[in-house]
């Protein structure tokens, strides 16, 4: 009685292969966690093993989906491993037929099994059909709706996210250069290796450009060309060309002195601004973005409710704004210096510099004082010299004409205190009340007020806050 191999639930040896593939993937990734940078090197065999890991993941998925392409992929990659192994050993002058046979036994078994097995031919029957392709294409075309708020909302989120993710991608790319897998210059002091949340907006712009410019081209090619491979290849070439032209334009505008990058020693460079290696890398990244990442992200977001996505949008925007203000926008206030050693934060205020100096003709006398304000959050200590109006009978500014004196004294505070002008104006006492951490701001306001009246020369004033 002939055996029936057509039952798609009975994978036989292919199920065993799925188990082996999954175990190998998990173990290899887990062991990779314990590799410490600068304590290991990747040789040719290691790179080939990682490449096989990717192949195993793809094969696992295709078998799971019963795709006919699984048979061709596994046979092709098994043959690839055999040929590469033979070529490598011949190049090393260490070729032995018996050793090569032992090294390649698993690939030989895979190749022969998928070449001859009736179960494989009976079970792996699902094609990449035209119907499935049309459905997928219609769905992906529907993602591109620039007249809707949802389209631009998602695009803003992609810009924010990929500005940071692009930093990590460049670090991964430079890591390949570091280990000699790609040619290039490795700079251990680059911004790439510090501040891992430092956004690189150029990658956010790149992601947006992929969606606005390259994604419609990909859809057009798929719609008018029957196969999948040809549109993919054409899209890759177009993506690489567009990205390279953008880099060339930026280089001619901003990098004529080669201060930002210099490819003059790279193979296939043009004017030292672009090179073949980067063009291929840009093509791969842009193709992944247009063919895989963007459609998958849009599909995932459409499965969420509008409120969830809008909430996530608010969080992403505020989070990115925090990074921008931390790393890019740093406003220096005159007379204010903020320093931190990781544990304590110190704020120094030079009131004289902050107010731009005293008005000409103001009378001043040397004096000194200190004020301490204690609060639940910490202790603020103000130290410095105060210049007050001269003793009784001294002439004051025009704003205090008819008044005999203005004297400024400092008081010590416990929890809250008062810093007030004495003798001339009772309103100053109410205005200059200082409570807790608001001490510095109120003192500055009082001094500014007196300076405007022409009767007070602002002091040099330092405030140190220890939390």
TrEMBL record:
<feature type="transmembrane region" description="Helical">
    <location>
        <begin position="155"/>
        <end position="180"/>
    </location>
</feature>
<feature type="transmembrane region" description="Helical">
    <location>
        <begin position="97"/>
        <end position="115"/>
    </location>
</feature>
<protein>
    <submittedName>
        <fullName>Uncharacterized protein</fullName>
    </submittedName>
</protein>
<feature type="transmembrane region" description="Helical">
    <location>
        <begin position="73"/>
        <end position="91"/>
    </location>
</feature>
<dbReference type="Pfam" id="PF06541">
    <property type="entry name" value="ABC_trans_CmpB"/>
</dbReference>
<keyword id="KW-1133">Transmembrane helix</keyword>
<feature type="transmembrane region" description="Helical">
    <location>
        <begin position="229"/>
        <end position="250"/>
    </location>
</feature>
<feature type="transmembrane region" description="Helical">
    <location>
        <begin position="270"/>
        <end position="296"/>
    </location>
</feature>
<keyword id="KW-0472">Membrane</keyword>
<keyword id="KW-0812">Transmembrane</keyword>
<feature type="transmembrane region" description="Helical">
    <location>
        <begin position="308"/>
        <end position="329"/>
    </location>
</feature>
<feature type="transmembrane region" description="Helical">
    <location>
        <begin position="200"/>
        <end position="217"/>
    </location>
</feature>
<dbReference type="InterPro" id="IPR010540">
    <property type="entry name" value="CmpB_TMEM229"/>
</dbReference>
<feature type="transmembrane region" description="Helical">
    <location>
        <begin position="47"/>
        <end position="64"/>
    </location>
</feature>
<feature type="transmembrane region" description="Helical">
    <location>
        <begin position="12"/>
        <end position="35"/>
    </location>
</feature>
């Amino acid at each position: 009685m002939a055996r029936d191999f057509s039952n798609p639930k009975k994978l036989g040896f292919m199920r065993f292969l799925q188990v082996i593939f999954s175990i190998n993937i998990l173990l290899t990734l887990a062991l990779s966690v314990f590799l410490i940078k600068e304590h290991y090197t990747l040789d040719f065999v290691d790179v080939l093993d990682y490449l096989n890991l990717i192949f195993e993941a793809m094969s696992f998925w295709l078998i799971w989906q019963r795709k006919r392409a699984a048979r061709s992929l596994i046979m092709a990659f098994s043959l690839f491993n055999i040929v590469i192994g033979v070529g490598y050993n011949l190049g090393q002058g260490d070729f032995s037929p018996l050793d090569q046979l032992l090294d390649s036994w698993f690939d030989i078994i895979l190749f022969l099994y998928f070449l001859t097995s009736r179960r494989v031919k009976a079970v792996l029957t699902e094609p990449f059909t035209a119907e499935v392709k049309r459905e997928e294409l219609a769905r992906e075309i529907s993602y591109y709706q620039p007249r809707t708020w949802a389209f631009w909302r998602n695009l803003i989120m992609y810009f924010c996210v990929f500005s940071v993710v692009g930093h990590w991608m460049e670090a991964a790319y430079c890591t390949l250069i570091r280990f000699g897998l790609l040619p290039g210059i490795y700079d251990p002091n680059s911004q790439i290796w510090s501040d891992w949340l430092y956004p690189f907006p150029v990658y956010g712009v790149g992601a947006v450009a992929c969606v606005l410019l390259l994604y419609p081209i990909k859809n057009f090619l798929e719609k008018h060309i029957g196969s999948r491979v040809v549109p993919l290849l054409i899209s890759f070439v177009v993506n690489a060309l567009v990205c390279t032209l953008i880099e060339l334009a930026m280089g001619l505008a901003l990098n004529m002195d080669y201060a930002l990058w210099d490819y003059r020693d790279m193979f296939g460079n043009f004017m030292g601004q672009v090179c073949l290696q980067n063009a291929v890398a840009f093509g791969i990244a842009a193709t992944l973005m247009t063919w895989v990442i963007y459609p998958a992200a849009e599909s995932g977001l459409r499965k969420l409710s509008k409120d969830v996505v809008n909430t996530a949008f608010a969080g992403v925007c505020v989070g990115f704004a925090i990074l921008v203000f931390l790393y890019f926008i740093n406003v220096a206030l005159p007379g204010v210096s903020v320093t931190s050693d990781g544990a304590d934060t110190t704020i120094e205020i030079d009131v004289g510099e902050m107010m731009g100096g005293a008005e000409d003709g103001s009378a001043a006398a040397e004096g000194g004082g200190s004020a301490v304000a204690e609060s639940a959050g910490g202790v603020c200590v103000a130290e410095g010299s105060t210049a007050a109006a001269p003793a009784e009978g001294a002439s004051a500014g025009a704003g205090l004409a008819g008044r005999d004196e203005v004297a400024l004294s400092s008081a010590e505070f416990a929890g809250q205190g008062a810093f007030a002008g004495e003798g001339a104006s009772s309103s100053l006492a109410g205005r200059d009340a200082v409570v807790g951490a608001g001490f510095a701001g109120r003192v500055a306001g009082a001094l500014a007020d007196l300076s405007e009246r022409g009767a007070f020369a602002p002091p040099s004033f330092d405030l140190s806050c220890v939390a």
